[in-house]
Amino acid sequence: MKAQRADHPMDFREGLLFERGARGRVGYVLEASDLESEALPALPAELVRQDIPGMPELSEIDVIRHFTRLSRWNYCIDHGLYPLGSCTMKYNPRLHELVARRPRMALAHPYQPEALSQGCLRLIHELEQFLARITGMDTLTLQPSAGAQGELTGMMIIRACLTQRGDPRSKVLIPDSAHGTNPSSAHLCNYQVVEIKSGADGRLHLEDLKARLGRDVAALMLTNPNTLGIFEQNIAEICALVHDAGGLVYCDGANMNALLGISRPGDMGCDVMHLNLHKTFTTPHGGGGPGSGPVAVKEFLRPFLPVPRVVKEGGRYRLAEEFPESIGRVRSFYGNFGMLVRAYAYILSMGAAGLKRVSENAVLNANYIKAGLRSVYQLAYDIDSMHEVIFTDQRQLKFGVKTLDIAKRLMDYGFHPPTIYFPLIAPGALMIEPTETEPRAELDRFIAAMKAIAAEAETDPELVQSAPRTTPVKRLDETRAARQPILRWTPD
Ligand SMILES: *Cc1c(COP(=O)(O)O)cnc(C)c1O
After folding, report:
1. Fewer beta carbons below 10 Å: N end or C end of the chain?
2. What CATH number does the domain located at 353-482 have?
3. What is 94-349's CATH topology?
4. In the predicted model, is pLDDT for residue 104 greater than 80?
5. Element (DSSP H or E) covering residue 192
6. Is the CB of 385 under 6 A from ligand 1?
């Protein structure tokens, strides 16, 4: 298998339009005007230009091709594998996009009267029920706009519940492998974050948990499968321990695409969890939004869910606000409705059997990459992987080649790099999540490229260290824009 794509998805040899023009080329020829010239107000002569200096003259196809080629500089899932671990960059079937863009969905206005919004409200209500069944939880809110906002909403619900019991408590336990949003959300909710070390196998251990548990612990925030792509095996005992200590269990469900139809966080004993519709349930993402982070809860937490809530009465749907214990509104209107439409269409088009195959294939694909690369890259944890796998640069370091070099070199091979240096507990991490939507041939191409880079690291480390070589800009100073931002444009 040749590692370099024959069809490298990006051709960066694109000049400026100004270099391309040729005298006399035209895009459009306008008909001569048949308006009387006296009908137009006379313009001052100095405002009427006969000529625009330096303006390139181009044909229509010159312009179309230029911008089409530039548009291809954006790597996207439609080009090829996008193995960003934890982000679940999978292919989103066009069908769901079409459904979401139907005018009756896309043009529905949030201020439309309830009588004219029955279809939209029904969709929200039914999606809540689908997601409750998929997660094993009892009810949920679709309002939060991201996983992180879902976490915050979930923590607010936990605080509201414990406050009602008479003691909101002060601490939240979070394993060291967690996504950075977990401690942020707990902190924003005024909890003190206590980190728990993962065991040598990447899992949370009962002994470590017991040592931290006490009457001051409000909740454990746990990701399952965790960000190392490893299933937390002791999850039932973990939940029982936290409950015995009077705390609640929050499950970060961002990795739900490994569990669909196979196991349910609700059955494991979790009390609150969020989902990322833009990861597991098709919404194109990666440009910073829009997203959707529904929060599912067990029955006893229902009173605290945000308002408004869609209720069904006598075959009609209504937006209800009358929940006195609710944490209130977390977002305008009722969430990113377009994302809800996509998720609804996705669940219906996949069906229960299809959703289960999603997770089986997500896990199979990650393990296929693991098997294909373990002879050349060091596994961070050599135990059963779920939907993502983590290698490190340990074997390449002795040739002076680091994770960053490997990631940059992948771009020369026509692939988007994986997530790097996360999770923090795996030094030099290369976190690869192929997702269920990749065909085997694409996985083989990726494996071949990674192997070729490992060989280059041994024989020609400078080549890898100086990557990328095929892109218009090479290595950027990745922190300068944050440290020395230029926020004002001054003409020179
Ligand atoms: C993506 C992710 C989040 C945060 O979700 P956003 O929608 O990006 O806010 C939280 N936890 C994990 C494990 C994730 O992968």
Report:
1. C
2. 3.90.1150.10
3. Aspartate Aminotransferase; domain 2 (3.40.640)
4. yes
5. strand 192-196
6. no
